[in-house]
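The protein record passed on for reference:
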Amino acid sequence: MSAAEPADIILSLSVTTAAETQALAAALARHCRSGDCLLLRGELGSGKTTFARGFIQALCPGEEVVSPTFTLVQTYPGSQAPIWHFDLYRLKHPGELAEIGLQEALATGIALIEWPELAQSQLPGDALGITIESGPGPEQRLLTFAGRKSVWQSRLEAMKGE
């Protein structure tokens, strides 16, 4: 984010089941388009892949969505744009990002990036950060969405209304 337009916490929502997490992700997916980048942050097991699965299945009905933990990236032919699902947990050096197609994903599709910290210097300033934290119940999660209001405010309000 540039200093002129800092990230704003736009929305925080609580969900109590994995199905609710997927439904929320599906609602957001319907408002995304080519060039969008979503940064999924949270501890191991917090629900990042569950969120990604709901997002991808909304735009690729019937598609089997697998975690890219070992492949590092999975691509899907989304209805609005290709979807690139990255898991950067195992990467050791930012130079590896070119090998897995990060810049192509950012230029041509929708990028969902789990563990985005390694790629920070290569990410667009208008990316939407989504932090998923565990709640008091076994499946309860708090999702916090942060990004530029000028880019994300209306889309998140529309998502919340679904």
